[in-house]
Design brief:
With 273 residues, the chain is an alpha/beta fold. It folds into two domains: 5-241, Rossmann fold (3-Layer(aba) Sandwich), CATH 3.40.50.300; 242-273, no CATH class. It is 38% helix and 23% strand. The protein has helices at 46-53, 79-82, 99-109, 114-127, 143-157, 173-188, 200-206, 224-227, 231-236, 243-253, 266-272, and strands spanning 5-15, 21-31, 35-39, 61-66, 69-70, 83-86, 161-165, 192-197, 209-214, 217-222. It has a six-stranded mixed β-sheet, sandwiched between helices. Strands 2-1-4-5 form a four-stranded antiparallel β-sheet, covered by helices on one side. A hairpin with a 2-residue loop joins strand 4 (61-66) and strand 5. Helix 3 packs across helix 4. The longest helix is centred in the middle third of the chain and has 16 residues, at 173-188. The protein is globular and about 65 Å long. Probably part of an ABC transporter complex. Responsible for energy coupling to the transport system. Keywords: ATP-binding, Cell membrane, Hydrolase, Membrane, Nucleotide-binding, Translocase, Transport. InterPro entries: AAA+_ATPase, ABC_transporter-like_ATP-bd, ABC_transporter-like_CS, ABC_transpr_CbiO/EcfA_su, Co_trans_ATP-bd, ECF_ABC_transporter_ATP-bd, P-loop_NTPase. Residues 7-240 form the ABC transporter domain. One of its GO terms (molecular function) is ATP hydrolysis activity.
């Protein structure tokens, strides 16, 4: 079956006002209904790419397509209704008095009725496990709670694509696991998820399609088989081979396991053993 692409950034170039070149003829396609991961060091252009996907930044050169429709210029505001973004720092996204008001802001601005807004907010709170926090002031939330409310913000607007910029940064393992469980449920509902991270192990176990970025461009792209076998290119992007894959290859070389499909997580590796 031919792959469908929901978002297409074609030859995007963007330079910030201070003269910093952030993207240089960037070309990426986001597969519909899949989990796509952007990996790369700081300054490689991941966040700037996300801001173009969401329409918050206008490309100085190049074009943006959403399901085949060119939204590069005047129509790019339509992206806000289709593509939601969860920022790296939740404090830059949250501003309302309490959790309920925060999550209701998006649907209200999209023109939904009070009844529809309430329905969307309650569904989003339940999906992100923050229903019991709805009356709590936003500034009293923990880091993990703020991240979940940020995701609920986007869910209440029911965007087809959800962008998550470094969503696990500063989260402990427990809250990271909770967050990834929420994302998995969203994926099962058919959402297209796009995540940026420095955590190569998280990326390897979670993603379906990968973009490795370095110096404003894509260095490598493809499935996990395509990408994580390219050790030299990973090192060029200051990334390591995922630990699970490293252990599997070590065992394979010593005849401890058979040449099976490379495991994606600890559970799959243990089954092989």
């Amino acid at each position: 079956m031919e792959q469908q692409w929901i978002l297409h950034l074609k030859d995007i170039t963007y330079t910030y006002p201070d003269g910093t070149l952030a993207l240089d003829k960037l070309h990426v396609k986001i597969p519909k209904g899949k989990k796509t991961v952007f990996l790369g060091p700081n300054g490689s252009g991941k966040s700037t790419t996300f801001l173009h996907m969401n329409g918050l930044l206008k490309p100085q050169k190049g074009e943006i397509y959403y399901e085949g429709q060119n939204l590069s210029h005047k129509a790019r505001k339509n992206l806000w209704k289709k593509v939601g973004i969860v920022f790296q720092d939740a404090d830059t996204q949250l501003f309302s008095t309490n959790v309920y008001q925060e999550i209701s802001f998006g649907p209200k601005n999209l023109g939904f009725s009070n009844e529809e807004t309430k329905k969307r907010v309650e569904e989003a709170m339940k999906a992100t496990n923050v229903f019991n926090l709805q009356h709590k002031p936003v500034h009293f939330l923990s880091g993990g709670e703020k991240k979940r409310v940020s995701i609920a913000d986007i869910l209440a607007m029911d965007t087809e694509v959800v962008l998550l910029d470094e969503p696990t940064m500063s989260l402990d393992p427990k809250h990271t696991a909770e967050l990834m469980e929420i994302l998995e449920k969203l994926h099962q509902k058919g959402k297209t998820l796009v995540l940026s991270t420095h955590d190569v192990n998280l990326a390897y176990s979670w993603g379906d399609y990968f973009y490795i970025m370095k110096k404003e461009r894509v260095l490598l792209e493809g499935t996990h088989e395509d990408v994580f076998s390219q050790r030299e290119l990973l090192e060029e992007a200051n990334l390591e081979v995922p630990l699970i894959l490293e252990i599997y290859q070590h065992l394979l070389e010593r005849g401890k396991v058979k040449a099976l499909h490379p495991p994606r997580n600890k559970e799959e590796l243990l089954k092989y053993l």
